[in-house]
């Protein structure tokens, strides 16, 4: 397996775009992986090609950026009664989790990523999950990712490394990391090209495109304002 290669879970959003830049800065060969799980904001998948192009243009990473892969996991959307996979209002549920939580999503994504990395001979898997500035999703926690790495390595008899460069960064720190990696050009590309809005809205704002009111937009906007004040 290649120690100098990485597979990045790349949704087309701010966090995964920053993780892709992080991986390109560190590894000699980087491939990307997206998932179609019947999400309402499927438009995020349409931004991925433009963001990959921007990363090559902004920082000269074209020689490092390898193939892109998209897997059809719409069965996950079919069994999920959530506001990300159904046309229902975003709200908190009785158990304290928002109904944007898609049960098992990150567990499934990372397992499929490891299966692809196994075939591609790639040791490093990079994901943008975060425990610092998130919506309370249990599959974004550091303990979950560490436990999953152990399970995947045991089950596949390989030594994959799951990297989470944003785990302890809030959204402002994520913007700062992007600036450090690619300067103002990368910041502008992430701001204008990537998509985070849960409703798939592309209304332009200072911090990017979105409805401005869903949890993803609120986090992104608040992080941008905090980043701009530093």
Structure characterization notes:
Helix content is 44%, strand content 16%. It has 230 residues and is an alpha/beta fold. It has one domain (2-171): HUPs (Rossmann fold), CATH 3.40.50. The strands form two sheets. It has a five-stranded parallel β-sheet, sandwiched between helices. Helix 1 crosses helix 7, helix 3 packs across helix 7 (171-193) and helix 7 packs across helix 8 (215-228). The protein is globular, with a radius of gyration of 17 Å. It starts with a strand and ends with a helix. The model has no long low-confidence stretch (mean pLDDT 91).
Concise structural overview:
The protein has 230 residues and is of the alpha/beta class. The protein is built from 8 helices and 7 strands; from the N terminus they run βαβααβααβαβαββα.
Distance between the terminal alpha carbons, to the nearest Å? 41 Å
CATH topology type:
Rossmann fold
* Tally of DSSP helical segments: 8
What is the domain tally?
1
Layout of secondary structure:
Blueprint: E1 2-9, H1 14-26, E2 29-36, H2 43-46, H3 48-59, E3 65-72, H4 74-78, H5 105-120, E4 122-126, H6 142-156, E5 161-163, H7 171-193, E6 204-205, E7 208-209, H8 215-228
Parallel strand pairs: 1-2, 1-4, 2-3, 4-5
Antiparallel strand pairs: 6-7
Helix pairs in contact: 1-7, 3-7, 5-6, 7-8
């Amino acid at each position: 397996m290649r120690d100098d290669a990485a597979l990045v879970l790349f949704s087309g959003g701010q966090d995964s775009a920053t993780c892709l830049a992080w991986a390109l800065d560190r590894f000699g060969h980087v491939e990307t992986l997206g998932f179609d799980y019947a999400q309402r904001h499927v438009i995020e998948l349409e931004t991925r090609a433009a963001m990959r192009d921007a990363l090559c243009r902004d920082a000269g990473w074209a020689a490092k950026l390898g193939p892109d892969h998209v897997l059809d996991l719409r069965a996950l959307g079919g069994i999920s009664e959530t506001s990300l996979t159904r046309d229902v209002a975003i709200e908190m549920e009785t158990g304290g989790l928002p109904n944007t939580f898609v049960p098992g999503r990150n567990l499934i994504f990372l397992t499929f990523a490891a299966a692809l990395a196994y075939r591609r001979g790639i040791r490093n898997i990079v994901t943008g999950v975060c425990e610092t500035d998130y919506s309370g999703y249990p599959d974004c926690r550091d303990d979950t990712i560490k436990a999953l790495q152990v399970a995947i390595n045991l089950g596949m008899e390989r030594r994959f490394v799951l990297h989470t460069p944003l785990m302890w960064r809030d959204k402002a720190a994520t913007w700062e990391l992007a600036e450090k990696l690619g300067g103002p050009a990368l910041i502008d590309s992430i701001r204008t090209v990537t998509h985070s809005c849960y409703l798939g809205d592309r209304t332009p704002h200072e911090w990017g495109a979105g409805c401005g009111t869903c949890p993803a937009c609120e986090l992104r906007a608040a992080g941008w304002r905090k980043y701009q004040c530093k």
